[in-house]
Fold each of these.
Amino acid sequence: MIPLNRYLHQPHASDCDCSVCWSRRELAKPDPSQSTPCTECRPTRVFTVVTTMALVAGVWRSIHSTYRVEPGFTCAKHMPALRPPKYWHVVYDSGKPTPFVPIREPFELEA
């Protein structure tokens, strides 16, 4: 019989398919995140077109501005869902609940 301390901390083979090696390989993969920018999506942008300046208390300040809004666009891949994701609703439905009846006297099963 091999002692446990000789078995532990042994290196895994390069083609090992155990859960530890599989998890390590999966975590090393890049994450395809939905927040990754794509070429179709663009944010909404606001540009100042005309600004009216005036001398207020000895300092030049903007007193009125006109803006141009460039609407953004979100592609179908990055469009949020209409409803939140449904995680689970029923794990296992075994029917009506059975009431608990305590047994006051021990018994033996008959064959």
Note: The mean pLDDT is 77.
Amino acid sequence: MRHSRILADVGAALRFYSRIPVPAGPAEDAFAPPDLKRIAYAVPLAGAVIGLAGAAILIGAHALGLPNLVAAILSVLTCVLLTGALHEDGLADTADGFGGGASRLRRLEIMRDSRIGSYGACALVFSLLLRVALLDGLLALSPTRAALALIAAANALPPFGLTAP
């Protein structure tokens, strides 16, 4: 596969799954949803780019002498901001639907509702706390390993809650 095609597909994945302003190529429509089957191989690479940004913040904050907890919070915040909190939105919708819906139809109705419920709020709090706590603990062991773990986690996990349009 040509390098230009790989870069274009990673760019398309970043445009679709993040808020990173990646310009489209001359033959691409920047606002059209990408062919998700074609770019599926590029999604982990796009995740690695986001994880790399979070890792850079983690290492930078640690190098500046900030407490590990603060470095971990800033790193997670970076990843959340770069993805537009899309993963968190999907997690909250899923938790609300499964927590509050007695039937399949009701669960789907709750998941489509843009308001957040108590199950969604709790899922968000615990998800963010776990990510920060894990990074804080890894950072105490080895800053390099913490950064690599963040990059690996970001590119290994599928976008939570996102589906093809």
Note: The radius of gyration is 17 Å.
Amino acid sequence: MVLLVLVAGRIWMLVDDVSSRLHRVDALSGAADTPGETWLIVGSDARDAAVTDDTEGARSDSIMLLHKAPNGQASLTTLPRDTYVEIPGYGEDKINAAYSYEGPALTVRTVEKLTGLTVDHYVEVGMNGVAQLVDAVGGISVCLDYDVDDADSGLVWDTSRGTCQDVDGTKALAYSRMRKSDPTGDIGRGLRQRAVISAVVSKAMNVGTLLNPFRQDSLVDAGTQALTVDRQATVPSLARMVMAFRSASHDGLTGAPPIESLDYEPGGIGAAVLLKDTTAPGFFEALRNGTLTKASFNHS
């Protein structure tokens, strides 16, 4: 999950020595810079034990590409974890297999090959950090308009209690992870992940949180415990990421690339998400150039 992006802003204001408290990892490829600024934000269960699926080893539970183009346009693109891509050195596979094979560095190289962008900064969030952040702001309100009893994510949702409900960190995490009970799979999950992000950002920035030292400290503690960044990342770069995220959300430039199939069967890896050959390259070109519109994103 991407939730800890908001913590960067709070850390910048509250803690002088936060940089030394962040987890660091070798992630960047060293490829030549491309215009603009690009963050790869990965939700991972590498430090958690709660998630199980068919991928061996640590997994990237969610992958989001946040880009601020030279003209100032910011966009937040969800890359479904089952997206069928070419993984350098391994051939074609689901995109989240890159993390399982070689961790952050290969994930970065895979996304760079797909998008034509050089990743400037890498941010990884341990999935338990989602629950910690939601609890740190005192819970959030999220919405879902159908009943769910999903064993894989642990989400139980009863619409007789309302389509919008207040949830704690544990339920927010299940809400963010649920996909097998969603008819749109990863697409619906991406929408819920962004809904949780927006709710946490809103709650963290309200007056009650800003004037509550206990809440401020809880946010900082949750962030530094769960956040892993590349070795070159600084607190100002994370603060710029917060601003880019808020801009993308405000302008509605969020979503998945154009998708051909949610149930593509290439053989040997199960069902995968197939991007549209005719439009996905154009999508990433528009992303790089800062010419995306709301209509550019998947609407299947």
Note: The two ends are 23 Å apart (CA to CA).
